[in-house]
Structures are given as C-alpha cells and as structure tokens.
Amino acid sequence: MKTPISDSVKQTLTLLFFISLIPWQARSEDCSLSEKQIVCPEIKSAPVKNQKDLGELGKILPLKLKVEKKSLCDLGVQSKETKFDDFVQIETTRQAQWLQKIQALREGRRLAGIQEISDLDQLEKILKDSSLLSDLEDSKALTHAVQKETLWHPKQIPSPIKNEMGLISQGLKQKEFPKDISSEMNEASRISQACQKASLPLQLLFDSSKSDSPRTYHFKKTLLAQMRASEVKKAIDSCPLKTQDQSCKMKAAKQTRHFEDEFEFQLCTLRHLFPNTASELNPIRLEIPSAAGDLVTEGPGERPTEAEAKSDRFRWNVACPEDFTAGGLLRMAAGGVGSFLTHELSHEAVARVQGEKLDWDSKTGTWRSHTTPNKHRAIAIAGLASHSVGSEVIAQNFSPDSQFQKGWLFWNMFNTVSYFGKDWAGKNGAKGSRSYASGGMDSRGSGDLRAFSKKESYVMGTLMGAHQLYTGYRYLQSRQNYQCKKEWD
Fold first, then answer.
1. Which helix or strand (DSSP H or E) is residue 441 part of?
2. Measured between alpha carbons, how far is 338 from 97 in angstroms, rounded to an integer?
3. Burial letters for 269-306: b for 16+ Cβ neighbours within 10 Å, e otherwise?
4. Which of 185, 204, 393, 460 has its CA 20 to 30 Å from the CA of residue 420?
C-alpha cells in the first residue's frame, strides 16, 4: 500500500520532469541547420510561478502524441497499426518515375558525348534525400532496384522491387515512423520564437513546421541543406502549395490527387532551381504506368487515356492484335518485300557505281559479275550492308504502329543472321545445296559471302549480326510504352 510520503515524492519528481521540458524565455545565439537536424542550443527553463503554469504542464506529452498522429494522417496512414505498404508505394512511385528519367537523360548525354552531368548528379541526390524513405538502411537497395527497371507499373511491380518495399514497410513500423520527423516539426514550431537570430533557412523551416505535411517539410529541409536559401525561397514562393484537409480523412480518389499535388509542388520548385534538367521530369501520376520516366499517356504516337492506363487490363504490348489482321499482315509482308528488293538493288547500284554490269538469273534470283576480286567483294557485301543501313533508319525514325516498318526490320534481322549462319556452317563442312542462290551453301560458304574468307566472314557477321540484334532491342525498348489500338480483351 502506498504511503502519502511516497506519493508526494513521486509527484515532485514528475513535476520536475515536466518543468525541464518547458521552453521558458528561450534564447539562442547560434541557431543553425544541418542536413539531419535543427540545432538551437541554450534553451533555458524557469520555475513554475503560478497555477496557470501548472495547467500547461500536462499538455506537453499529449501534444507530442497528437502531433505524431497528425503526421501519420497527413501521409495517408490511419494509425501505427496500419501497414505502411501504400505509403511506401507512393514514395517508390515518385522515385521510379523521376530517377528513371534522370537515368535516361544521363544515358542520352553519354551517347551524345556530353561529359557534363554534375547537374544530374545534384538533382538525383536531392530526389533521393528528399524521400521520406531515405533514412532507412534498405532504401539504397530499393533505389538501386528501381533504377535498373525501364518500366514502372503501379499495379504490376516486379518481385525484386516488391520484396524491397516489404522490407521498407517493416522498417518503418519498427522505427515507429514518423516519430522522428514529427518530433522535429513539433520542436521547430516551439522554438521558432526562441531563435531570435535565426537565419533564413531556419525561418523557412519554422514556417513549414506549422503548416506543411511531413513530406513537404522534409523536401524543403533537404533543399535548404544543399542549396542557397535565397534561391530555395524564391522557388518555393513561385510554387504555391494547395492547403487541404488531412489526407487520411479523404476518399481514395481525392487522397491520390492530394499526394499528386504535393509532388507537383516539388516538381515546380525543382524546375525553378534546375531550369534545364528538371524541366525534363514529368508530373507524378500515382496510378499511371511510365516507361523510362515518361508517362504512357504522353508523348507522340498512339497513347491510352488516363482511364485506360489506370485499368487493371492495361498491359505493355510488343505485338498487338492489329498486327495480325489481314491488313496488318499485308503491310508487314510489303515491308519484307521492300527489304528483299533493297538488298538486291544494292548489288546493282554498287556495280553501276563501279562501272560494272551484273548478269542476273531470273529463275534463281542470283547474279554474276566478271570483274576484279575487290570490286566483286564490294558488290557482294552491298546487299547485307543495306540491311544495316535500313535498320538504323527505322530505329532513328520509329513509328510504333507501322506494320510496314516491322516487316522490313524483321526481314533485315532474319536475312542478316541467317546469311552469316549458313555461310559459317558451309565453310565449316556442313552439306547443303550447291546453288549460288542466297539460300544455298557448300564448302565455299553461302551466297554473296562466298567472296570472303572464313575469317572475314566471322568478323563481318559478328559486327552486322550484333548491330541487327541491337536494333531489335532498341525497337522493343521503344515499343514498351505503346498501347495497342484494339479492344483490351
């Protein structure tokens, strides 16, 4: 049974504890901002003077709990018991769409021979650090997995990324997220009066701690820790952020739009700070797939509507139903015929340039020349060289819904690879037709390539075959953000 004395001691100790938390006549001569925390030392406390002060004591801990609950709600999380999966997916979608775009920009500069990428590196660092997942150990692995993927589909997340997201969600629960940032925002709001000589970065943070969500507060803090405060203030002032009710109390559609508005504010701010680089970033749409950072609802060519892109039936298409209609097959066949004719006409064109005339056999589709070996070799390789040129032209002028291009490109690839394959087989002892027609092969090789040695054939075949396969890869990459025109089913 408790004694009056022990109760009195307990009350006194509790009172002293609460007193130590009161920022009474707080003052600081050196308020500063680091990348991880706000530093505002020398906050002093004073004795309780009256009953009113005692009444304020009991509000401190409940206030911290309310602030933390509000922070959860601002992020769309109902409570600590709720799984963080949806929140993690929102943050991951932001990273996927923007970081993949930066990857594409970096690769584009590399191919163009541009060495300067410091602006891309700085923007990428800001995007990573300003994510609310950045402090977790598993966040780097998640970011790396996201950047390796060309495609991002919110409803079809690859297993490696989904596994990393699961670890992140568990980590947030273990660290009692968003306890740290909620406490910091609370303290920033309380000490704003204490920092009488606070710098511009802290003033901006103090204002943000009173009105913004944890996501926006952390974004501003990241910018202020890495860039000039005057530039950040100018960018923020140019991008007004809509104030709304707490997001966890919204209906799903409105909540999604609310988060997209937050990301739109971030994008607007980044575009003011990085006018050249960030202008390439697209607005975040949490329910729309993207390819290399570009939303599938934007860009040239046939595109789905937002409703179609959000549909569960949406899928990436390499081949579409319209490709296999009668008209589509005829157009692909016409492309194949175009490739074949270009191959043969290239022989004739190179012969004419060299002042030679070819003898054509209309029955077998073969040609003969009576010229020097060097001229003969140039004429022979012209047909396969036309495939490389034609494929490159198609890759540079790609049209995702052109069956004619598909047929031409497919025949270029097939003819090049099969030509060299048969030639290598023949020169290595495989038996086949002795006809000089392109389909035949014997110990001298196959078709036009008989004019070349085994070593020459290996070198040319490796280079030309690799180029055709690379062109096909580029075709597939371009095709991945194309939506078929026919019905979904």
1. strand 441-442
2. 39
3. bbbbbbeebbebbbebbbebbbbbbbbbbeeeeebbee
4. 393
Closest CA to 311 of 289, 292, 294: 289
pLDDT digits (tens, 9 = 90+) for 221-275: 899 888 888 999 999 999 988 766 677 778 888 889 999 999 999 999 999 999 9
Q: Is the pLDDT of residue 478 over 50?
A: yes
Where would I find the beta strands (DSSP E) of 6-112? 32-33, 38-39
Which amino acid does the sequence have at 39? V
Q: Reduce the DSSP state of residue 294 to 3 states and report it.
A: strand
Q: Tell me the two tokens of residue 83.
A: 């799984």
Neighbouring residues of 346: CB distance < 8 A, sequence distance ≥ 6: 382, 383, 385, 386
Q: What is the pLDDT of residues 435-458, one digit of tens each?
A: 444 445 566 667 778 778 888 888
Collapse the DSSP code of 285 into the 3-class scheme (helix H, G, I; strand E, B; otherwise coil) and give the result. coil
Does the N-terminal peptide bond of residue 160 adopt cis geometry, omega within 30 degrees of 0? no
Length of the chain as a residue count: 489
Alpha-carbon distance 342 to 282, whole Å?
Answer: 41
What's the rounded Cα separation, in Å, for the pair 347 and 447?
13
H or E stretch at 426: helix 403-427
The neighbouring-strand residues paired with 294 are 291
Q: Which amino acid is at 479?
A: R
The residue assigned the tokens 């609950």 is 69
Closest CA relative to residue 473, chosen from 389, 387, 399, 413: 413
Which two three-digit tokens encode residue 333? 């066949």
Q: Where are the alpha helices (DSSP H) in 75-155?
A: 85-111, 118-129, 139-148
pLDDT at residue 18, rounded to an integer: 39
Identify whether the C-beta of residue 399 lies closer than 8 Å to the C-beta of residue 301. yes
pTM for this predicted structure: 0.61
